[in-house]
Design brief:
By secondary structure, the protein is of the alpha+beta class. Helix content is 47%, strand content 19%.
């Protein structure tokens, strides 16, 4: 094998590799010798087929195997000897000239191919102890717990049937048939459907048309589907609903006592409040964690400037851009609606792609240098958490991850990243700063989980209303 570097511009590499005909012939002879004891050819006893006859019968197909094996072995050896780290699987270009190919397969010509790839850059990590960060914190006060408990009471309201007209906040139980141009449309029919008036869970005009109805009443309600509605056949269309009112019920806020607490799985009101406090603290700690992590990634990004493998950046940009275009198409919006142009958006998202690649390489270097690893047990715990998100499909989800190495690697990546971030935070100068609840959750629902941070923050976005769920 002979290797010649034909291009070394920046991080790009192009190598010309030549495998001599004598080396290929040696590999071919070895492979034919293996076949000699296995081949079953009419007219010859097993194991007695002459090698020249095997060459005549199988030579070309076996040489194809030999060439494939030779390319695999020599390409790996060439990279290993150069002590370089390819950023991705090298691209191998084999000869295309038919005469040259025939010479190779006939054993009279050398195998010559080119291999192109990009290498990972040398990453000089800044002094991590010089990073200064503020960690926003918002302690949970008694009034926060009181408000959360009030929300729990409000979301666990009982309803008592009434004879009077339906008002905002009442629950109206109805049968309905939706019609477009006089014909019932798919998905527009329901029986015993509970509608809470004022909740905004239905298309414009529907809940408004139920205001003032009474049990036993029949009515036709006019409504209009939004222009951005997901079903094109209904988007922007005016429809009618033939409605029969089964029941009108007024809300009754439950009494906060131990019996109510027990209905929610707690032993007492005191324990319920402790559970609420714990959940609020958990949510706020997650928001605080995400913000200090974002600040850290900002500092790391600003503190490093090294050449990035162009193909990694391009692949990252393409993935981001595909998602952007999908989101625009799904929402039926344009770049003009977003206050920008396609050219400006591309420039912005290319910068995001570069940031992600830079941070990915940097965190990988810090983790590798400091022997930060992810154990199988940690991956298994993450897998269990993922499986729990698909009740009833646990076996299928488990089998998918166990049989898909790439998917399993995607579970490992955020664990590794968080461990590296924790390592850096231990070295950095981090001070706590009390902030208001609004400031704590500010900017956490602005899409920056996709656009601003590295690849694995998406599951941690919270907003102020998130606390209302508990």
């Amino acid at each position: 094998m002979n290797v010649t570097e034909t291009n070394a511009e920046g991080l790009r590499r192009e190598l010309k590799v030549v495998v001599g005909a004598d080396e290929l012939e040696e590999k071919l002879a070895s492979r034919l010798e293996e076949l000699k004891g296995k081949a079953r050819i009419k007219g010859f006893r097993p194991g007695r087929v002459p090698k020249e006859h095997l060459r005549k019968v199988y030579g070309r197909s076996v040489m194809a195997e030999v060439v494939q094996q030779a390319v695999q072995e020599t390409s790996q050896k060439a990279i290993s000897e150069r002590e370089e780290r390819p950023a991705f699987q090298p691209k191998v270009s084999l000869p295309e000239d038919e005469a040259e190919i025939n010479q190779i397969f006939e054993g009279t010509g050398d195998l010559s191919y080119t291999m192109t790839f990009e290498v990972l850059p040398k990453v000089d990590v800044m002094d991590l102890s010089t990073i200064t960060l503020e960690r926003p914190t918002t302690p949970v006060a008694d009034k926060d717990i009181d408000e959360a408990v009030e929300r729990i009471l409000a979301t666990n309201q009982a309803y008592k049937p009434k004879d009077g007209a339906a008002e905002k906040g009442d629950r109206v139980t109805i049968d309905f048939v939706g019609k477009l141009d006089g014909e019932a449309f798919e998905g527009g029919t329901a029986t015993d459907a509970p509608i809470t008036l004022g909740a905004g869970g239905f298309i414009p005009g529907f809940e408004e048309g139920l205001m003032g109805v009474k049990a036993g009443e029949e009515k036709v309600v006019d409504a209009t589907f939004p222009e951005e509605y997901g079903e094109p056949k209904l988007a922007g269309k005016a429809v009618t609903f033939e409605i029969k009112v089964k029941e009108v019920a007024a809300p009754e806020t439950p009494t906060l006592d131990d019996d109510f607490a027990k209905s929610l799985g707690a032993e007492s009101v005191t324990q319920m409040r402790e559970t609420v406090k714990g959940r609020l603290e958990f949510d706020r700690n997650m928001a605080s964690r995400l913000k200090v992590k974002r600040a850290l990634l900002d500092a790391l990004n600003e503190g490093h400037n090294f050449e990035l493998p162009p193909t990694l950046v391009e692949n990252e940009f393409n993935a981001i851009w595909d998602q952007v275009m999908h989101d625009l198409e799904h929402s039926k919006r344009t770049f003009e609606d977003e206050g920008t142009t396609e050219e400006k958006a591309k420039e912005e998202y290319r910068g995001i792609a570069e940031r992600r690649v830079r941070l990915g390489l940097l965190l990988s270097e810090i983790g590798s240098t400091n022997e930060i690893t992810v154990s199988d047990d940690e991956v298994n715990k993450a897998l269990i958490e993922r499986i729990r998100q698909f009740p009833g499909q646990e076996r299928q989800v488990y089998d998918f991850y166990r049989n898909t190495p790439q998917a399993l690697a995607e579970l490992r990546a955020p664990i590794f990243e968080d461990k590296v971030v924790d390592y850096i935070l231990e070295l950095a100068k981090v001070s706590d700063k009390d902030v208001s609840l609004d400031d704590l959750y500010k900017d956490l629902d602005d899409g920056r989980g996709h656009d601003h941070d590295h690849d694995h923050d998406h599951g941690h976005d919270h907003d102020h209303d998130h606390e209302h769920d508990h």
